Amino acid sequence: MELYFFAFPPLITNQNQPLSHVHRRLTKSALRRPMYQKRLFYFYYPRAASLMVPYERKASDNYKLLQKPRTLQNCNNGEGGKLILASPYSHTRITQKLGNGTAGNQTCKYKIHSLIPVSQKMSRNLPMMSDLKVKLVRPLIPPQILHEEIPLTSKARATVLRGRRAVKSILDGEDDRLMVVVGPCSIHDVDSALEYAYKLQAYAEEAAEDLCIVMRVYFEKPRTTVGWKGLINDPDMDGSFQINRGLRIARELLVKIAEIGLPAGCEFLDLITPQYSCDLVSWGAIGARTTESQIHRELTSGLSMPTGFKNSTDGNIGVAIDACKSAQAEHVFLSVGVNGLGSIVETEGNKDVHIILRGGSNGPNYSADFVQKYGAQLDKAGLTPRLLIDCSHGNSSKQFERQSIVADEISKQLSDETTSDILMGVMIESNLVEGKQSIPPTGRAGLRYGQSVTDGCISWETTVDVLENLRRGVRERRLLRGGNTKQISFSSASSDSGIVI
């Protein structure tokens, strides 16, 4: 049931006025409009001890008093939950002027923050010209509040910085290890994600000489049409869209993963969510559906970590090259600051960008021929010829089991003189249990523990085998270079590319 909260200014009501007076006012007000039928309302008295009076509209001119007035602090939302105080600034519509004052200034469609009359907070008598197709507006917690509630610990900070430096060194050719972004297609369960993180961190320490492992921790999922959009958007997986809770869960999980000592990689899909968690991310990704987006390129230009752009869904790499060039440049754009306010952002440009090959509708693009071809294109465009191969999606023909085949091919290319210097890393979709599952009508209760709810993933056991194969490829590459474990030499790079080689 949708909730509407109306505030009656002192001009109309005071604590001596009976409820019947308010009732009469309601039946004559702009609430007679059909859009307000069969809705639940709470009416707030600024000068009447903060009383909240619940009414339900039954017919065009009939309001029923559901219960006795209660104080603001003790009022619930009609569904058993506690009424939480929130900001009054986010209002959507204001009712018509009636008589000698406003009969019902609508504060917002959700909650009321203070005892200050709404008439002092916003102008009156605005026509209903906007938000005509908006059903509900809810308050969003400011990023700064989450940062204070869930702070970046010193240990987590050290992990994030170490991860960023390592990825940058690999991108610049100063570290010959292979970067591996591995983890679930999407995070939907904190417990299974943490279990996976502990397993991965133990292996990462063992393989640290050959592999730079970054856990794939994706909270947002782009959808071709519709579907579950990720833990931030709908953490309960029931269509309730408790986004504030999703943001809190995501930040808490990233802190825990960083404290384990494992760098995290995230896809940035929404333009606001980076303010809530980007201080905990060591590597970022822009997906195939958003690489061509100007606002995502602008966002990337201000990100503090190395970031990869995927080729477009049709396999076109030209779009990703343009995205890298754009993200390296300075930009000025509109965004939201950590205080939650709209802001004008000026960026310096992000020089630590690269391209991710993920295949496309025309087929895979991870073969040696593609790697050589795209490396030459990057060099010609003045970008560092470095590629990260996505073993899933178009490169696996959307068959998760084929990720092992793709990784095996990359391992072989590491010891090929024509491709070894171009390959900087791989991405693997992996989980505790292989395959994927659909979200049942019962929601979380019916899910199998440790199995993906989006794209299919290889199992943890298979993941270890794949990583061991990649380690062998890294060692073969070192032998190819005569045992050099430090520097990779690129054929050439534009002097104004912004990349230190």
From TrEMBL:
A GO cellular component annotation in the UniProt record: cytoplasm
Keyword Transcription regulation attributed: no
Name of a matching Pfam family: DAHP_synth_1
Lineage top rank: taxon: Eukaryota
InterPro entries documented for this protein: Aldolase_TIM, DAHP1/KDSA, DAHP_synth_1
GO biological process: amino acid biosynthetic process; aromatic amino acid family biosynthetic process
DAHP synthetase I/KDSA domain ranges (all copies): 169-467
Protein's UniProt name: 3-deoxy-7-phosphoheptulonate synthase
Organism: Lentinula edodes (Shiitake mushroom)
